[in-house]
Amino acid sequence: MAPRIGLSGPTSGGPCRHFVWRDAGRVESSDHARFDATSGALSAVAASCGFSGVVARSDLTGTLLEVGAFGARHRAEDLPNTAQTRFGIASGTKAFTAATVAKLVGERQLTLDARVGSFGPEFGRWIDPDATLDQLLNHMSGCFDYFGTVVPDEVGYRLPVSAEDLDAPSAYLALCTGSPKAAPGEAVEYANGGYVALALIIERATGGAYGDAVTDLVLRRAGMGCSGFFRSDDLPSNTAVGYMENGRSNVFRLPVRGGGDGGMYTTVEDMASFWAALLDGRLLGDALTEQWLQPVATWREGLQIGRGFLHRAGSVFLDGWDLGVGFMSVVHRDHGEVRTLLSNDPATALPVVEAIRGA
Fold first, then answer.
1. CB under 8 Å to 300, separation ≥6 — which residues?
2. pLDDT at position 38, please?
3. 206-238, pLDDT tens digit by residue?
């Protein structure tokens, strides 16, 4: 294993041109140093626990206040993570799928009350055709969740189909083979299948590829020039390889290209830009921003959910964890700042999660 490398402040990394954590927000206690909102404190926590990845704080205008990079993005080559390194964000992708739907709603290409069945018969196999787009966004469609079909093993799980075959939203249909689990609107039950459907619906509405729609409607407009949906077997420069607990990469365990439910790559700088563009109304406009950032339903005690975002105690956040992938980005409105964690070795991240979430 390559040595841990800690870097303070923005670092050089050259120009910039999945799947899903199913227990979002679960955090246990730790003996590591507690976080306080002063410059360098978040990096200090990361340095104290052998963290691999990048942590950052920014204000609500997108200005970075603190950046710390640690560990290696490629262990065999001893290449360090930097402030510009791209990381996978697993289920954090759902917010970008949801924001793309919001753009299409704003442009009157989609409506939140549209029925899933109106977009094609293939959805009827795992989703009630009467479920609405809003129910898909809020995990209230009752749809089948393909994650229940993965096979547990000593590392975590194996997909029931080849990861190499999962290169477009339509390919994920091979995973969505079960029946709906509940009637639409009956309960909140986290389901990746709903966001698989949303990616396909975005393609129906735009006539193009899902990843292109997210890039054109959200990433470019939010100034996220380093982010995108990259193939894991053809990654761009300065992109972190994800490592599992056995030390191997995750390349054979996750879809080769992400879809609507997970798999996008981004940087801490791009996340700061995203939150700034979203919160000041530049991305969606004031009315849609207010609608999209309202919690809709309680998922579990202390945690609410709404249109791709999670809410807890006055904060709104994104969360994504998988084999070799760790991501959390939290807007603390009372402090007026954003805290973001990107990791390619999530086993090292727990104390940093506490700091990201802490008051």
1. none
2. 52
3. 999 999 999 999 999 999 999 999 999 999 999
> Which residue is listed with tokens 């998922």?
299
Query: What tokens does 212 get?
Result: 């292109």
CA distances from 309 to 49, 297, 313, 357 (A): 28, 11, 14, 15
Domain tally for the chain?
Answer: 1
Tokens 């969360």 belong to residue: 319
Cα separation, 281 vs 37, whole angstroms? 26
User: For residue 159, is it left (φ>0), alpha (ψ between -120 and 50) or beta?
Assistant: beta
Query: From CA 232, how far away is CA 224, in angstroms rounded?
Result: 19
Query: What's the CATH code of the domain at 28?
Result: 3.40.710.10
pLDDT at 358: 78
Tokens 């396909």 sit on residue? 200
Nearest Cα to Cα of residue 226 among 182, 271, 171, 162: 271
Q: What is the pLDDT of residue 27?
A: 30
Q: Across the chain, what does the average pLDDT equal?
A: 88
The set of residues, in sequence order, having a beta carbon less than 8 Å from that of 310 and lying 6+ positions away, is 24, 25, 299, 303, 304, 316, 317, 318, 319
Q: Does 1 fall in a domain?
A: no
Residues of the chain whose pLDDT is less than 70? 1-39, 359
Closest to 195 in 3D by CA, of 164, 229, 169? 169
Residue 140: count other Cβ atoms within 10 Å of its Cβ: 24
For residue 207, tell me if it sits in a domain: yes
pTM: 0.89
pLDDT of residue 184: 97
Cβ(136)–Cβ(217) below 8 Å: no
- The whole-number pLDDT of residue 153 equals 86
Task: Determine the structural domain holding residue 219 and report its residue range.
Answer: 6-357
Which residue is listed with tokens 């996750």? Answer: 254
The pLDDT of residue 70: 97
- 41's tokens: 């404190």
90 within a domain of the structure (yes/no): yes
Domain annotation covers residue 229? yes
CB 26 within 8 A of CB 245: no
